[in-house]
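Continuing from the previous page of notes. For each protein in this section, the sequence appears first, followed by its structure tokens. Read the first protein now.
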Amino acid sequence: MKAMISLDGLLALIHKFSLSASNKRWLGEKLLEEARAEEAEDAHVSASKFYGVWKEEDYPDWSADDMAREIKSNRKFNRDLAAF
């Protein structure tokens, strides 16, 4: 059975435990550590993740140079950073 709980409800539940300031700080730090780790995983995408995504039969008329041009023309990461 899945249960839905709001963040406000979760916070209210935590307040019912009457945690000390140091316990609240510990809990907050643990949540932040997990969030940072999840964000870091999402931010880093290895090229090996895409291994085997394209098959030669998917693009029979494309040469390796054509594929490289297509990939380079659709990269947005470097162009987005140039705006900063």
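Done with the first. The second protein uses the same format. Note its length before scrolling.
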Amino acid sequence: MLAISTMWNALKQPDGASLFDELKDLGFEVIALSRHLTLEQIQQLKPLFREIGQKPPCIIQNFCPILPGTPQAEAENDIILLSSLNNDERKEALRRTIQTMELAVEMEVPTVVLRLGEVDTYDRSYLMTDLYDYGEREFEAFSKKVTEATEWRKRKQAKHRDAVLRSLDELNERALKMELRITIENQPHYYQIPNFDEIELLFNEFYGSPMHYWHNVGHAALQEKLGLCWSHEWIEAYSEHIIGITLYDLQELDPYHPPGTGDIMWHALSAQLPSDTLKVIEICHGDAEEVREAREFCEALTNTLEDTEI
């Protein structure tokens, strides 16, 4: 199945029904509910999925709808975290995530993609991005800055991991009762949770739970560009847990471009991607025609995978 995220037009189309029609007109039968949707847009979307034959959204992200007081343009910035050391903040993040899960049940969305939070450390991403922009990616100074940033993370990560474990303990229990699948997603920045090693830690801790792995191709590619982890290693290590994949392209370090229009080597990557896994195009750039081309590109990629496995 190939779906598209509402990220593409959530900010441009305030009316939920019109937003939905635009995505259907692009040739998609299924949509994914992103964290950019307002409560009003959600309320306008709900009746559309009660129509006979209309497939429900395939996934929903926490927090959806967007948190009160947060501008849509800033939806990617988390203001409350499941990893927070402030217990009141963490509990509020839990409450809002559970609200997202309840919305998933109401709209018959089977899967909730979780944003787990981050380690509270001074963001040293600029140490890597500046050198990357200057063309210093292959030099020793770059690897030293990567090491410097990740070492600072290690000094503070244990307590935040513990907070995430407490949060996931409750969310897994809720998901089991609600008959939902929850997924943890690889993130683009070194200070976010989970990093590469933490995914294994979380699955070991919650073995047998309804928790799965959601692989974001763009996030993995960005981590590779910034010297953090080879992009192919995520799928190799966690393929048994994968139930879905996010597809977007990078132009240098700029994310959310239509697949096939950036730097990712898709045909090399395609050998890794499971053909029978849900795939979601998540982009904010491109007009309608570019989105149609991206859909055709991804459909051809999926067909190639299926032909290879026959």
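What the second structure shows: The beta strands are 2-5, 31-32, 59-61, 111-114, 181-185, 211-216, 242-247, 249-251, 254-257, 278-281. The chain is about 45% helix and 15% strand. We return to this in next week's lecture.
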